[in-house]
Design goal:
metal-binding, DUF34/NIF3_sf, single chain, five-stranded mixed sheet, alpha/beta, DUF34/NIF3
């Protein structure tokens, strides 16, 4: 498949131009024109790039690419080594941040709901496909600790649970993958009994307790492994490409 046609297909599918983001969505580094092998991963770290070189990938597709807002623009040190690896091996880098979080079928939030058996009811901050704070119902009969066990089993990573005062069955859950802990107030205002994201800040504990909402920090990496896999599988299925997902271990 032609590289630019592949990029255009992903841009269109994810409606990438709709989002005001902290980074460049789409093609970040251009490699060879023809793409047969696509490697996906969460972050375009050096370990993932080394795997791509060994597999002879034509294109690397990630959720966390390069060129973030306010980062130094000089291409030196670690950034130089990463980009040099791509250029020397003629490998393209394609990255989607918020568009991949929001997509209603292949996105991180949609895929997390599927892995956790949540019934999706909508978003608190927009329509499905544009909103980032998702709402729904967990499997029945789960209290806060039961939900934490369920999440840990499904993601193969024990979440950090902050229990709010009181207990009982959780009827409504909110979630946003990655570093969205500061959406906890909006989650409570939307009627959620529990909120799941990837990271936790010092203030999150106090907010959870005082707002009366359980908080689960399930891991930035762990909650964002599935969207990029789904997008890679879509490319392989729709455009007859070879696809391989590589999960570079990350406890954060």
């Amino acid at each position: 498949m032609n590289r630019d046609d592949l990029v255009a297909a992903c841009d269109h599918l994810l409606d990438a131009g709709r989002f005001r983001d902290y980074t460049v969505n789409g093609l970040q580094v251009a490699g060879r024109d023809r793409v047969v092998r696509v490697m996906t991963g969460v972050t375009a770290c050096q370990a993932l790039l080394d795997e791509a070189v060994a597999w002879r990938a034509d294109l690397v597709l990630v959720h966390h690419g390069y060129f973030w807002k306010n980062e130094p623009v000089a291409i030196t040190g670690m950034k130089q080594r990463r980009i040099r690896t791509l250029l020397l091996n003629d490998i393209s880098l394609l990255a989607y941040h918020l568009p991949l979080d929001a997509h209603p079928e292949l996105g991180n939030n949609a895929e997390l709901a599927r892995h956790l058996d949540f019934r999706v009811e909508g978003c608190a901050d927009g329509e499905l496909g544009e909103g980032l704070l998702w709402l729904g119902a967990p499997p029945p009969g789960l209290d806060a600790r039961g939900l934490a066990r369920h999440v840990g089993e499904r993601l193969a990573r024990e979440p950090l649970l902050i229990e709010a005062p009181g207990g009982g069955e959780i009827g409504r859950v909110a979630w946003c993958t990655g570093g969205a802990q500061d959406m906890i107030t909006a989650a409570r205002e939307a009627g959620a009994d529990a909120f799941i994201s990837g990271e936790i800040s010092e203030r999150t504990t106090h907010l959870a307790r005082e707002l009366g909402i359980h908080y689960l920090a399930a891991g930035h990496h762990a909650t964002e492994r599935y969207g990029v896999q789904a997008l890679g599988e879509w490319l392989a299925r729709e455009h007859r490409l070879e696809h391989r997902f590589v999960d570079i271990d990350n406890p954060a």
